Amino acid sequence: xxxxxxxxxxxxxxxxxxxxxxxxxxxxxxxxxxxxxxxxxxxxxxxxxxxxxxxxxxxxxxxxxxxxxxxxxxxxxxxxxxxxxxxxxxxxxxxxxxxxxxxxxxxxxxxxxxxxxxxxxxxxxxxxxxxxxxxxxxxxxxxxxxxxxxxxxxxxxxxxxxxxxxxxxxxxxxxxxxxxxxxxxxxxxxxxxxxxxxxxxxxxxxxxxxxxxxxxxxxxxxxxxxxxxxxxxxxxxxxxxxxxxxxxxxxxxxxxxxxxxxxxxxxxxxxxxxxxxxxxxxxxxxxxxxxxxxxx
Length: 296
Description:
Layout: E1 7-10, H1 16-25, E2 30-33, H2 37-46, E3 49-50, H3 54-58, E4 63-66, H4 71-78, H5 84-87, E5 93-96, H6 102-114, E6 118-121, E7 124-125, H7 127-133, E8 136-141, H8 144-155, E9 158-165, H9 169-197, H10 202-210, H11 217-228, H12 237-254, H13 259-276, H14 284-291
Parallel strand pairs: 1-2, 1-4, 2-3, 4-5, 5-6, 8-9
Antiparallel strand pairs: 7-8
Helix pairs in contact: 1-2, 9-11, 9-12, 9-13, 9-14, 10-11, 12-13
């Protein structure tokens, strides 16, 4: 018999599926629920168990992980008679790994406390590749004791695992992460168009840039997307649009100016408005190409 905690996993999307499978590989008993039948079949094929509802998934779980798109989805699975808080056992640990507003995380922690359920907000960075390879960065908000208890589980999912402060802190750091990533992708996209219009060997240029101060994880991860114009979603523009809304709203609340971030947020929004919301966020290149007179 395994001494590892029993895990309920809610949300089996681009990130949630490989992450839950990595827990199965690490020896955890994982019961999952999502709305797509094929995602449930994928989990069972990997050795997990499918549940027909959130309530069924969480009822006997020691740890509950949610990985859904945004705050409304977190609230939908957490609250109500069929939600997590009404059906999880007292003493369970709820780890929300979605990217949502800090305020939503703080509110969830307060509501869960009344039910005897502990909460960590633990959003991640690294995209689909990081989820598959179990090398995600995990930024956590919540009590130290709960973080210490969850650390072995996090270590099956990522490599950089840091408690950033009380409830909501993980989401605040994730918002900052998304700001940096969006601005970085936009800068890379502008450089690609500039290089191509200048007649430079793009592959060679990106190689040498990657080895200098301009190098970044974003450039390393997205270089092939730029070169091949392959915008198969690892992280969709739709989701980055949502995250830029989170960071601009949070910054306004605390009185932080984000002049470059505000411009990039508008560029992300414009790309989405042109029908590219389902593409990878490296498709910001398409927006720069349009502005530069290229036919996309």
